[in-house]
Amino acid sequence: MNVTDIVFPQGFLWGAATAAFQVEGATDSDGRTDSIWDVFCRVPGNVVGGDCGEPAADHYRRFTQDVRMMADLGLKAYRFSIAWPRVRPDGGAVNQAGLDFYRRLVDTLLEHDIQPWPTLYHWDLPQKLEDTGGWATRDTAFRFADYATAAAEALGDRVTTWTTLNEPWCSAFLGYAAGVHAPGRTEPDAAVAAVHHLLLGHGLAAEAIRAATPYTRVGITLNMYPIIPADPSSEADQDVARRLDGLQQRIFLDPLFRGKYPEDVLADLDPFGFSWHVRDGDLDLISAPLDMLGVNYYTEHFVSAEPGETGPSPWVGVGDHSFPRRDAPVTDMGWEVRPDGLTSVLLRLHAQYPRLPLYITENGAAFRDEVDGSGIQDLDRTAYLESHLRAAHDAIEMGVDLRGYFCWSLLDNFEWAEGYAKRFGIVHVDYDTQVRTPKLSAKWFAQVARGNALVAVP
Fold it and tell me: Which residues lie closer than 8 Å to 47 by C-beta, 6 or more apart?
């Protein structure tokens, strides 16, 4: 199929995404208090270069400029996250000054005919709640519902689609088991508790949003990857792949869509006390019907039972494992470029779980950008996006109800533990001057969005 033949369904939604801590800056403005990421960044060695969320892309002060730029690029939706420490600082009372920022942002988006797609939680838990146990503690789920109520009551008359959580796998396993993300804990028992409490928080928040705004769509976003055994004939490799798939995908998908945790995952996590955290009625809340599911996709996991790196691991209960490198191009993050894996993920959801509208809520790549007089000719990133959009279209052709695509990321930003060393943006940000420069990928993506069809990569 030629590029010119790849036309997306009528009404397909084209957007870009960011996250509050990665772009906003203004970390102590208008009543905002510390999140776990503010505190994590202050610990020497946690973040490359000693970087922190200040000033990031200064989106808090420059959002009107950024919204105009989105409109110029032909984008019709903006997926952003709301900073919990702005709206309910320290997890406490509502801060109207913080809510006012998001009111202004939503109003400005609507003035430019761009749909606001807020995410309630993109990893910035108020530090005061972490001090009392964080997501390892059941009460945090209820505080999350309080925060969801405040956000929905303030914005629900103008927002039609809400996402509760972004990538709870990262929050639980990178933050509480591996310790490479905030809050930096290396406690497997806490990590599995966090899984359940994040999902409980999702269920409670979804209920709160619907109570405040009954006609709003509610969903969740999961990061999904095919898990491929290095040697399909090896029982050990197959078992490691099963265990990883249980932790990466099924521990979230099954309670959300089947109302129960997978039996094999419960057995794998029994030594860590996972089942102890599940109480009567929890799974009913978690499995309340969703209106959409967001899928974040970047690569595949190719896994072996051979021992790999030592030290704290996000893969709780998996045992010996490693990720052999295959002969494939990689991004600046070291992630293999595997567009076919996106098709596989979408087809799996279509075949194995209840069908509902799907959206690719993140997809993109970090590459090194060369800035010169001719602009930023990021052909590698543009080719990455083109190949993954082709893969998404393949899934649509096979019957998947895919309704939109959000590029990650609109802006170069703070890339978590990598600091400012990695650039995912289709728009370059000079962190010294805050000048924005659309890259080749942005100009190409604008053509795609306006035409609702792929165009050739220059």
Answer: 40, 41, 416, 417, 418, 419
Q: What tokens appear for 166 in the block?
A: 């972004």
Give burial (CB, 10 Å; 0-12/13-18/19+) of 432: exposed
Distance, in Å, from the CA atom of 318 to the CA atom of 305, rounded to the nearest integer, reads 9
| Strand ranges (E), 18-168 | 77-81, 115-121, 161-166
Determine whether 362 is an active site residue.
yes
- Maximum C-alpha span of the chain: 63
380-424 pLDDT, tens digit each: 999 999 999 999 999 999 999 999 999 999 999 999 999 999 999
Residue-level pLDDT at 1:
58
336 is catalytic: no
Using a 10 angstrom Cβ sphere, with 0-12 exposed, 13-18 middle and 19 or more buried, the burial of residue 53 is: buried
- Give Cα 87 distance to the centre of its chain: 20
Q: Active site residue: 24, 130, 167, 415, which one?
A: 167
H or E segment to which residue 219 belongs: strand 217-223
Q: By C-alpha distance, which of 282, 112, 89, 106 is closest to 203? A: 282
**CA 251, CA 268: separation in Å to the nearest integer?**
11
| pLDDT surpassing 70 at residue 140 | yes
Q: How far, in Å, are 40, 129, 181, 312 from residue 43 at the CA level?
A: 6, 19, 12, 18
Q: Where are the beta strands (DSSP E) in 288-426?
A: 292-296, 301-303, 358-362, 402-408
Instruction: Identify the active-site residue in 130, 300, 336, 362.
Output: 362
Peptide bond into 324 cis (omega under 30): no
Per-residue pLDDT of 273-307, as tens digits, reads 999 999 999 999 999 999 999 999 999 999 999 99
Six token digits for residue 223: 């990061």
H/E segment holding residue 192: helix 188-212
Write down the pTM of the prediction.
Answer: 0.97
Q: Are 158 and 110 in contact (CB under 8 A)?
A: yes
Query: Which residue in this structure is represented by tokens 């939680």?
Result: 121
Which letter does DSSP use for residue 277 in this model?
Answer: G
| Distance, CA of 184 to CA of 343 (rounded, Å) | 33
Q: CA torsion, points 69, 74, 77, 78, in degrees to nearest 10?
A: -20
